[in-house]
Amino acid sequence: MSNSRGKKHYFSWLFLLLAIFILIGINGWKEELPINNGNGGNNQIIAGSNNSAADAGQSNDANKILSAVPKELRSSFFLEEKENRCCKTLLGNVAVAVVMVNDSASQWDDKATAELRTALQDNGREVIADAKAYGADLSLTFHYYTANITGDVGTDGEKDWQDQALESAGLPSVSKVHKYLTKQHSAKEAPLMFVLNKSGRATTSVTDVEWITMFHKSGYDGFEHELLHIFGAKDFYYPKEVKQWAVKYFPDSIMNTDGEEVDSLTAYLVGWTDTLADNALAFLKDSSRITESYMQEQNAKELFTGVGTKEYDNGTYTGDLLRGFRHGTGTMRYHNGGWYTGQWNNGQRSGYGTGKEIYDNGYYEGEFYNGKRHGQGTYVWTTGSKYTGQWTDGDRTGYGTFTWPDGTTKSGNWKDGQFIEQ
Fold this sequence. Notes:
29% of the residues lie in helices and 31% in strands. It folds into three domains: 1-29; 43-293, Collagenase (Catalytic Domain); 306-421, no CATH class. The protein has an eleven-stranded antiparallel sheet with strand order 7-8-9-10-11-12-13-14-15-16-17, with no helix packed on it. Strands 1-3-2-4-6-5 form a six-stranded mixed sheet. By secondary structure, it is α+β, with helices and mostly antiparallel strands. The longest helix is centred in the N-terminal third of the chain and has 26 residues, at 2-27.
């Protein structure tokens, strides 16, 4: 009896092992991915249409998009990354993983977290509305994670802090996170977004794996712009010739400076439309001589860190730059004759400086603080009147003298632009 039972157990184990090997042969060995540690469980769903056709890729995928382009234009720089992206089309159920990063210079608190969630919810609705305008089905969810890292992001150069942040958040490394997130959130696509509670320049990495980096104190107006980058859209605001073509064919493109509309080429690249509009074809033809090496060179200039000179639509800046932003000390000379010399922070006048600002009704020349008239200065109106004295937060406040065109003067103390006493 015992021998019989032993043989039965032996054959049972043999059949079990054989079944396992057959299953592995059929399905292939699947790498185990880490289980979510509970971080990221507090999610937002942005309402949008979401059907099975969209989840299956609808009628768009990267290969189909490129096959619809005339052969002579398929090598265009503006199309070259579509086949290699992790995130292919902005369609169906898209889960955005938002990693809130605490670094040595900034931390998240309840107020900032609430502001972030509200801002992304509002921006998410705008993205869905833009997709709907092209007849595309899109639904967005935001999944929040918290991470702690060493170092100061934004001042430590191109430090590889992303894997450190992902590990702290309980997520796989950059090379594996996209596959994990799509499975974890049952999503067609799962773009990754890092956010820090500080000021800085929003960027998108489009190398082996795509991710967005945004800075809470600089706002989220650029969220859709960066999200479109993840799915293959390109910038139109540099270099000069690209911007000129974009202004000609896509005058209000969200991929240009201050634009608000998703242009036809961008909509085509992210999968919102199957057809290449005439203006998109014209842009690709005009820009066909632009090469990847040339754009890499221009990108290096656009994101330069150090002391240099940079041209803007309204003037020329010379001074300190951080990833292309005016940051540190520098001088901006405006085309209208105005100028400013002083401190800058992430592209904005911040701290003390002196300069001259030209307005429709006159000009101010004097001291500034955080971009406002502050300190000692003179305002001269086109009528011939002028005020010389102290300023606070942009208003005449403190001791000063007002002079009328006929030479009459009034000197004394002022508050919020009003004379209060001699």
